[in-house]
Amino acid sequence: MSGEGEKVGVLVISYGSRAAAMIDALCRSEDYNVRLFVADKQRNPFNVAHAEKHVVIPDLDVEKICKFVEANKNAIDFGICGPEKPIIAGVRDLIERKTGVPMICPTKQYAIEESKVAQRYLIEKCCPEANPRFKVFHCTDYKTVTDVKKAVWSFLDEMGDEVAVKPDKPTAGKGVGVWGDHFTSREQLFEHFWSIFESGSDVLVEEKVEGEESSFQAFCDGKRISALPDTRDYKRAFDNDMGPNTGGMGSYMDKEDWLPFVTKRDREEEEKLVQRIFNELRGNGENEGLRGIPFYVAFMHTGEGSKILEINSRPGDPEIMNVMPVLKDDFVDVCFRMIEGTLSRVECEKKATVVTYAVPMDYGDYRKSYSGDRSVDLSGVHALKEIYGDNLRVYPGSMELREDGSTYALGSRVVCTVGIGETIEEAREISLDGIRSIDGALWNRGDIAAPHYIERSIRKMKELRG
Ligand code: AMP
Ligand code: GLY
Predict the structure, then answer these.
(1) With a 6 A CB cut-off, is 23 part of the ligand 1 pocket?
(2) Are 445 and 249 in contact (CB under 8 A)?
(3) 352-452 adopts what CATH topology?
(4) Could you report the per-residue pLDDT of 283-293, keeping only the tens digit for each?
(5) pLDDT-based confidence at 431, cuts 50/70/90?
(6) Domain 6-108 belongs to what topology?
(7) How far is the CA of 169 from the centre of ligand 2 (A)?
(8) Which of 53, 67, 353, 361 is the most core-located residue (most Cβ within 10 A)?
(9) CA 334/CA 355 separation, integer angstroms
C-alpha cells in the first residue's frame, strides 16, 4: 500500500492497537515507500504483516530495543514510540545517544506522565484554575498507620469525603479509586490508599470533580503544539459506566474538533490551558525534548470550567485510533516535520469515528476466569471491507500470530474496529458491525457512542452549568 516515492525506514515501538493504527497511517503514505522495523510486545498479526523486520521484546526493555535499532541503524530514518513504559525509561535519550536515529516521543525528562504528583505541581503553577484541590501523602513521612489515617481523615473532612485516590505513577487508568464509585466508606477508601502506600508509592488524594470527560491530544515539534480533535474515552469495563476502570473500552470523535456535550469555546479553553503548560516547559524558545505527543490531557468538564484529571506523554489508546485513520496530512511527512521543527498544524478529514474494543472473557472481571479456547478469527471482519472499504479499520492489539498462521487472544484488549462516517451514529454502526463479525470468545461494550449515552452527557453538562 505504501507509495512509490523515496524509501524511508521507520522504527515503531509497539504495545497494543495504537501501534497498528500508526503503522497503518505510515504505510498509507503516498509520497514515501515505508520500510518498517517493529519492536513489539508480541507477534501482533497486523504488525508482522507490514514489517520488513519484526522483533519481539516482551518487556519492551529499552536496552534491547536500542540493540535492535543499532543492528539496523543504516536503514532507519526515525523511530516512533506508542507505549509509556519505554518513554519513561528514556528510550529516546538512549537511542539518539547510541545510534543518532531521531525519535518521536518526549525525552525522559519530559515524560511528565511518570509522576501524577509532579503534574499537579506543574498545573498549579501554570493554570491553577484547572487543578482540583489535592494533597500528597509521602510514604516516608509517617511512622504509624494511625498517623497516616489521621492525616487522611483530616483531608477527607476538608473535602467532605468526595475524593479520588491515585498512586504517584502511571496507572493506565486502573489504579485510581473514586469516592462513590469504588468506595463508599472511609475504611474502604483507606484500604485502597494503604494498598498503594504499602507498595512504597506516594499517594495523591484529590477533590472528586463532577462532569463529563474528554481527551485532548496534540503533536508537538518542540516549538508549537498541533492539536488534534477531542475524543471521548470509555474507561469503565461495562455498559452504563459500571465495573472497574480499564485502559479504555472504546472512544468516539465528532466531525468538529470538539465533542457534542461541550462548546467550541470549551475546546478553545482547553487549547489555551495546554498552551500555558507547553509554554512553561518550552521556556522562551523551543524545546526538542517535547517532540511527539507530550500532552495527551484528560479533561473533566464541570460546572466550574475544565479541570485536568491527568497528563500523559504519549498517544492515547484507544483515542489515537480515532484520529490516525482520518489524518489528511501524510503521516510520514508529519513525522519529518516534527523532527525538523516545522510542524505548525495537522489537518483531519471532517468525519466522525468510533472505536470499539473486543476483550477477553476475563478482562475487567467480566468472567472470574476463562479457561476455554482463545483463538480469534478476523476473516469475517476483514470480509466486511467489501462493504465499508476504508471506512472500517481493524487493529489487533493484545493478539498473537502463531507459527501456523492462526491468531490468539492474549490477556488485554484484543482487537478494535474503527468505524468512520459522516455522523457518529453511522461510524458506530460500522464499528459494531465489525466487532460482531469477529469470531472468538470475546466481549465488548455495546454503548460506546450510543445516542442515549451522548444525550445523557449533553443533559448532564446542561444541569452542571445551570
Ligand atoms: P486517571 O488515570 O487519573 O485518568 O483516572 C482514571 C479515571 O478516574 C478518570 O478517567 C476519571 O473517570 C476518574 N478520575 C480521576 N481523577 C478524578 C477526579 N479528580 N475526580 C473525578 N474522577 C476522577
Ligand atoms: N485511554 C487511556 C489511556 O490511553 O491512558
Answers:
(1) no
(2) yes
(3) Glycinamide Ribonucleotide Synthetase; Chain A, domain 4 (3.90.600)
(4) 878 999 999 99
(5) very high
(6) Rossmann fold (3.40.50)
(7) 14
(8) 353
(9) 23
pLDDT tens-place string over residues 27-39: 999 999 999 999 9
Asked if the model's pLDDT at residue 200 lies above 90, the reply is no
Cell of 124: 498549579
Q: Which amino acid is at 138?
A: H
Q: Which atom of ligand 2 is nearest to the CA of 312?
A: 5
Among protein residues, the one with the nearest Cα to ligand 1's atom 15 is 309
Q: Evaluate if residue 409 carries a pLDDT over 60.
A: yes
Q: Which residue shows C-alpha cell 497486523?
A: 46
Probe ligand 2: pick from 81, 85, 215, 320, max atoms within 8 Å of CB? 215
Closest atom of ligand 1 to CA, residue 233:
10
CB contact burial 115-139 (16+ within 10 A = b; e otherwise) = bbbebbebbeebbeebbbebbbbee
Between 85-94, 153-162, 163-172, the lowest mean confidence (pLDDT) is in 163-172
**pLDDT score of 454 more than 80:** yes
Q: Is the CB of 310 within 6 Å of ligand 1?
A: yes
Q: Which residues line ligand 2 (CB under 6 A)?
A: 172-173, 233, 247-248, 312, 316-317, 319
Q: Domain residue spans in the chain?
A: 6-108, 133-207, 212-349, 352-452
Out of 3.30.1490.20, 1.10.760.10, 2.30.30.240, 3.40.50.300, the CATH code matching 133-207 is 3.30.1490.20
The fold for domain 212-349 equals D-amino Acid Aminotransferase; Chain A, domain 1 (3.30.470)
Question: 356-408, pLDDT tens digit by residue?
Answer: 999 999 999 999 999 999 999 999 999 999 999 999 999 999 999 999 999 99
Nearest ligand 1 atom to the CA of 206 is: 19
Query: Measured at the alpha carbon of residue 438, what is the angle toward residues 434 and 439, in degrees to the nearest 5?
Result: 160
